[in-house]
Every structure is written in structure tokens, then in C-alpha cells.
Amino acid sequence: MTIDVRPITAEQHLAFIAERGSASFLQTPAWASVKSEWRGESLGWFDGTALIGVGLVLYRQLPKLKRYLAYLPEGPVLDWERTDIEEQLDALVGYARTAKAFAVRIGPALRHHAWGPATIKQAIADEQVTRLSQVEADETSLAGTRWLRQLQHLHWRPVSGDEGFSAGQPKFNFQLPLRHADGSPKSEDELLKGMNQLWRRNIKKAAKSGVEVRRGTRDDLARFHEIYLETAERDGFTGRALSYFETMWDALNAEDPERMRVYLAEHEGDLVAATTMIVVGEHSWYSYGASTTAKRDVRGSNAVQWQMIRDAAAAGCAVYDLRGITEGVGADDPEIGLIQFKVGTGGEAVAYLGEWDKPINPVLYLAFDQYMKRR
User: Fold this and answer.
1) Which CATH superfamily is domain 179-317 in?
2) Alpha helix ranges (H) inside 70-196
3) Per-residue pLDDT tens digits for 191-205
4) Whole-prediction pTM value?
5) For residue range 56-108, what is the model confidence (pLDDT) as tens digits?
6) Is 125 exposed, middle or buried (0-12, 13-18, 19+ CB in 10 A)?
7) Which residues, 6+ apart, have CB-to-CB distance to 307 below 8 Å?
8) For the chain, what percent of residues have pLDDT higher than 70?
9) SS3 category, 196
10) CA 161 to CA 167: how far, in whole Å?
């Protein structure tokens, strides 16, 4: 049979993800409503009449031209073990051409390498090591290696930029497995014992200090946002508007009332930390976090993370995803504190394949590439 790519309904899209078990929240139909500056479309891959894959495509128009970048963040959602993936990718490019795309960008959420906490700690301690990829991974996916080479062979281009956050979605992520290798769930005691001594001590200190963590409502997004802006100013990044988080809440929870959550850690009536979490099937993500400069000693950030981890496990999730990290592990790396904080959970650093472009119109793609480099 010839593989065919064509638009599908949001219901078909969601049903496929539910049957599969999970997919990135960036590949759910609702995400198109969050990214209002893009035009979204749900696509299905058909082998005859059988739906074998789905994807959310976001189209971004070039200035003054009706030509688009067709972007599938952390997608498409395909079975990468199938032998006809090349044909499936060709079908995607063919469809994008008819939609007036000058290029297609994909970001397969396919594990390639993983480094466990002991390996990460050794890398941080080794003065000769500055990047995680310099040390041997504890796990390497054969499918990931195969498709890395195949994408190169098929003339897909890796998105330029460093290995951090500049190239769209991060290539390196930090994840805490909530199940054993045999699929059985880990108990709370097992999850706690997997953490390092500092994390366990901080969780106990938060409880002893009287920190209370609760799930909030949409109205509590405003309180989260107040200390999120404080965090942005303290850490030197540009914060998003409250309306962005309200749009996320409305879009994601309209699709599934348990999709997005907000958590608040309070101490004697004062908000000391707040976070948002997203759940799709068996995968949960810590998406945004914030904390106050005042009362940092009561360890509200550790308390709120521990509550989210327990709630994710109770919901039957297999993974608690702390999202992006850079692979820099040198003592002077500006993001070293981030990986040190996350490795304390006992999780692992996971490298996906990264993002890849397929130019359709080489002239327009070159102009777009030059524009992005100037930015």
C-alpha cells in the first residue's frame, strides 16, 4: 500500500495518542490553540485505511509571502520501528509541498542516549569533561542510531545552534522513571530513596518547616505568575504574560480536564514556590516553575516537586519529565546549576535526535536560515 498523509479530526488525533499510550503535549491538537501566531493542522498517516501515525503541524508564514515553515515540535508521532518510515517522511514532505511549505521541520521524540545519575555526577566531577556527550552513555537506542544516520542519508539537515535551548525544543531532557524495568510502579519510598541526600533532606526540612503544597485552580495562575515574574527578573530571562498561561490552561484542559495543573507551595500563608504540570497518558511534564527570594530556606521548590512526582506516579504515569537541560557539565557552565538540581531527583539525562529540516524550496529556505542566524 502507498502511505498517504491527509488532515484528520482532533478526535481521531486524540484517539490515536490514547491508544498509543502517550505523546508529547506539543503534539496534541490543543497545542495549536496555545501557539496563536502559528496555524495548526492535525495530520494522519494512512497505510490503506489504517491510521498508523499522527502529527500536529504548525505553519509559520514568511513575511510578505504565502509560504510557510511546517513545524512538528517533538513529532510526528510515528512507530519508528516500522520499515517504511522513509516512505512516511516522504509522504509528509509531499503533503507539506501542497500546503505551500518551503521547508518541513520535525523533532522526533525518539530516545537516542541516556545517562544515569552516577554517570552524570562523575562527568560533573571530572575537570576534563565539559559536555555530557563526551562520556559513554549508559543506554544507546539502536533505533535512535539507525534513524540519526538515515535522516542524514535522506538529506534532512540538523537544525543549527548549540546543544541547549536555542534550536526550538531541547535535544537534551531530564526524566525521572516512575516504573521499574519490568513495568511495575515504583513506591513512594523507592522514589525517595532514589534521590540524593540533599533532596531528601530538603523535602524533610520543608515538611518540618510547615510548607504545605496544594493543587490550585485557574484563578491561582495569577499568583503563580507573580512569583514567576520575580523568578524571571532574578534569573535574567524574559517572562511570559499571564494571558499565555491562561490560554494554555483553557486550551489544554478543554481537551482533557486533567491535562494541565498548577501547584502552590505555601508557608504560613506566604506563597514560596509554584509550578505547572502537564499530563498526556503515561507521560507527565514539569513545565514551568517559580520561587520567591524570601523564605528560600524552607525549601518550597523541593516540596512542590515531590508533590508533583507523587501525583504523577499516582496517576499511573511512567515518566516524570523535568524537560530541557543543556549538556554542559563544566564547573563554569552557566546552566550547571540546573542539571545539578535535576540530577538530585535520581533521574536520567535523555538525548533525543534533535530537530531536523527538509528544505522544499532551497532559495526560500536559505533566506529563512540566514534570518534565523541573524536573530
Assistant:
1) Gcn5-related N-acetyltransferase (GNAT) (3.40.630.30)
2) 85-98, 117-125, 142-153, 188-194
3) 999 999 999 999 999
4) 0.94
5) 999 999 888 999 999 999 999 999 999 999 999 999 999 999 999 999 999 99
6) exposed
7) 213, 263, 265
8) 98
9) coil
10) 6
Helices of type H across 99-132: 117-125
Helix (H) or strand (E) holding 4: strand 3-7
Mean pLDDT of the residues in the chain: 94
Residue pLDDT, tens place only, 261-295: 999 999 999 999 999 999 999 999 999 999 999 99
Sign of CA dihedral 160, 161, 167, 169: positive
Q: Which CATH number fits domain 1-107+355-375: 3.30.420.40, 3.40.1280.10, 3.40.630.30, 1.10.3720.10?
A: 3.40.630.30
For the record, the C-alpha cell of 102 comes out as: 518551503
Q: Are strands 319-324 and 50-61 parallel, antiparallel or unpaired?
A: unpaired
Q: Are strands 3-7 and 212-215 parallel, antiparallel or unpaired?
A: unpaired
User: Does residue 8 contact residue 42 with C-beta atoms inside 8 Å?
Assistant: yes
Cell of 98: 501542497
Chain centroid, CA 284 distance in Å: 10
Distance CA 54, CA 15 (A): 10
Q: What is the SS3 string spanning 138-154?
A: CEECHHHHHHHHHHHHC
- The domain spans of the chain are 1-107+355-375, 179-317
* Cα-based distances in Å from 51 to 6, 99, 204: 10, 21, 49
pLDDT at 334 over 70: yes
Cell of 234: 532574578
Strands in 107-240 per DSSP E: 113-115, 139-140, 157-158, 172-177, 212-215
Contact at 8 Å (CB) between 14 and 23?
A: no
Pairing between strand 319-324 and 283-291?
parallel
